[in-house]
Design a protein that fits this description.
The chain has three domains: 100 residues, Urease, subunit C, domain 1 (Roll); 123 residues, Roll (Diaminopimelate Epimerase, Chain A, domain 1); 215 residues, TIM Barrel. The protein is 28% helix and 20% strand. It has 19 helices and 25 strands. Helix 2 packs across helix 7 and helix 7 packs across helix 8. The longest helix is centred in the middle third of the chain and has 25 residues.
Length: 601
């Protein structure tokens, strides 16, 4: 039988523990049909077979980004970028130049500033922006996305300031958010967590064409970095873009062949009722969810209900058990009451919808773990009562561990997808070690962004002190406790580039190579371990471990040709490795102009 594509003369890291290395593999249709020695795979060659001669280069499974924001990333690519700004003066100048080029009526929108890098050593103030925005409303997000600064024009539109800067104190108490005030009780412009929504809801709605363009930009950029699948949190908790707008944008792009990656779409838990009314469940192809089973190629699936339970470490809004070391007046912001979180999770699980929860602080992580435990137990008890006391807890958690999630079908008898028994705890930054065995027992996946360690090193011990820092960003210890781990980027908070994340996991250093030997070096991972978490780990997290994440017969033909070999370069060089070609389902989604590779068609 003839293959459609053969990849040969390669150093193939299959990420398949049963056969970890190979020289070649054959693709037929959208899947791999054979892997092995180059001579053996040559038997699959026919007159129509395309051949990718890797010339001794490394080929790996496609990278799976276990957590990012595709829509936000796509929009950020055309908004003002403020990453790397070293002073407020530089920030103001960037804003001034950007605002000058905007059409009339447009907002000044941007992202990426970090007051820890400012020479002035302070947060921006609305008046810093007023001087350079020309009267346009402005909202600029901190790099973490959990803090923003608005100018006076935007605050007035949101009703937070009256004419003449008259304060509106009745509007400053925001559930799950903080409006920073000056000594006169007026907003400084800094908004934390839910308070940002007071301004953001006034930003003009992107057109459907603009939304599609944003997604296309983001997925094309992801493919350029070797990413073949993304677990993406898209859609607003309230307002726009709503579930329908995002779903239709993904549908249209997939149908037109402009979607460069696979998408596992995580929607806001605040839209859970709407998703339930639509009959959605985790693992459902988007075409089926929209009632259009013939519309696409099955590249987009319904994922999890995404929950934010706290904020960010840099913004002092991550929820901690003990006060911040550098701000003893606060322990951060916990966004949910315990009972509400448990009830929402139980409704999702009971409807066949998986859950992923953002938790950066140890108090937030504890709240999520406890809520999962109680929600699973409540569902199991309900199932047992419904079966006359003979019901089984059933389900399978991470790495084969039993979980209390019931195995019964979702609404209408639909089989529950494996991901429902694998809730994800996103970030896992500041944690208590006693949380890890509980995560393992419950089958909770640690959804980790390794690039964070490179960015956060300058502030971690300052924020939480040396003692708490010892169990922070402790991914080797988490895995050693039996927890399944997946790697992602949280882009646009961090760059999409998986090799930068692998560099951070292997070296535990900043992007400038500090400190020598790495921070908490006992938590460093090997290249093989880090690569597995960026491939197999992401597949396991969403119940796709038998379809993606490795190069083996029967698996999707998702793979990447790299310009250098991660196993052969010095660790410091890992971050510079580039993708020369990226393939999804056997077809090229990115090809470096300098690389002579076939398109796979």
């Amino acid at each position: 039988m003839e293959a459609d594509l053969i990849v040969t003369r390669a150093r193939v890291a299959t990420m398949n523990p049963e056969a970890p290395w190979a020289e070649a593999f054959a693709v037929r249709g959208r899947r791999i049909v054979d892997v092995g020695a180059a001579d053996a795979i040559a038997a699959w060659r026919g007159p129509r077979t395309q051949v990718l001669d890797a010339r001794g280069r490394r080929v790996v499974p496609g990278f799976i980004d276990s957590h990012m924001h595709v829509v936000g990333f796509g929009l950020s690519l055309v908004e003002l970028g403020l990453a790397g700004t070293r002073s407020l003066a530089e920030m103001r100048e960037r804003v001034r130049r950007y605002a000058r080029e905007l059409p009339e009526g447009a907002w000044v929108l941007g992202r990426g500033w970090d007051e820890a890098e400012f020479a002035e050593g302070r947060l921006p103030h609305r008046r810093d922006l007023d001087a350079v925005t020309g009267g346009r409303p402005a909202l600029l997000y901190r790099h973490c996305g959990h803090v923003g600064v608005a100018n006076t024009a935007a605050l007035r539109l949101a009703g937070l300031l009256g004419e003449g800067d008259t304060p509106r104190p009745e509007r400053y108490r925001v559930p799950g958010g903080v409006v920073d005030l000056d000594e006169d009780g007026r907003p400084t412009g800094v908004l934390r967590e839910g308070a940002m929504e007071l301004v953001a809801r006034h930003i003009p709605v992107e057109t459907p064409e603009g939304l599609r363009a944003a997604i296309a930009r983001a997925t094309e950029e992801a493919a350029r970095h070797g990413v073949t699948a993304i677990h993406s949190n898209d859609g607003a908790a309230e307002g726009w873009p709503d579930l329908g707008a995002v779903a239709e944008a993904y549908r249209d792009l997939e149908a037109s062949g402009r979607l460069a990656v696979r998408i596992w779409w995580d929607f806001p838990v605040e839209r859970l009722e709407e998703a339930m009314e639509r009959g959605w469940s985790s693992g459902m192809p988007l075409e089926e969810a929209l009632g259009e089973p013939e519309a696409g190629a099955g590249r987009v699936h319904i994922g999890s209900a995404k929950i934010f339970t706290d904020g960010s470490l840099g913004g002092h809004t991550a929820a901690l058990f003990q006060p911040y070391a550098d701000r003893p007046d606060t322990r951060g912001v916990l966004l949910w009451e315990d009972e509400d979180l448990q009830e929402r999770m139980a409704r999702a699980f009971g409807s066949g919808i998986a859950v992923c929860a953002h938790a950066i602080g140890d108090r937030a992580a504890e709240q999520v773990i406890t809520a999962v435990e109680r929600a699973f137990a409540a569902i199991a008890e309900h199932a047992a009562r419904g079966a006359g006391g003979s019901g089984s807890a059933g389900g399978v958690g991470g790495a084969g561990r039993a979980s209390p999630a019931p195995a019964a079908g979702a609404r209408g008898g639909r089989p529950r997808h494996p991901s429902v028994s694998r809730p994800r705890l996103i970030h896992c930054q500041i944690m208590r070690p006693d949380a890890w065995p509980r995560m393992a027992r419950l089958g909770i996946v640690a959804d980790v962004q390794p690039r964070f360690v490179a960015s956060d090193l300058p502030i971690v011990e300052r924020r939480v002190g040396a003692e708490r820092a010892r169990s922070s960003y402790a991914w080797r210890s988490i895995a050693a406790a039996g927890v399944a781990v997946a790697f992602g980027s949280d882009c646009p908070v961090e760059p999409i580039a998986p090799m930068e994340g692998i560099y951070a996991a292997v070296t535990r250093q900043t992007m400038d190579g500090e400190p020598e030997g790495g921070w908490q070096p006992q938590e460093r991972l090997s290249v093989t371990e880090a690569m597995a978490l960026y491939t197999r780990g992401g597949a396991y997290a969403v119940g796709a471990e038998r379809e993606r994440g490795r190069l083996a017969p029967g698996y999707a033909a998702d793979f990447v040709l790299l310009d250098e070999d991660p196993w052969r370069v010095p660790p410091a060089e890992l971050r510079h490795i580039r993708a020369l070609a990226t393939y999804v389902a056997g077809r090229a989604t990115y090809r470096d102009p300098s690389a002579d590779v076939p398109d796979g068609r």
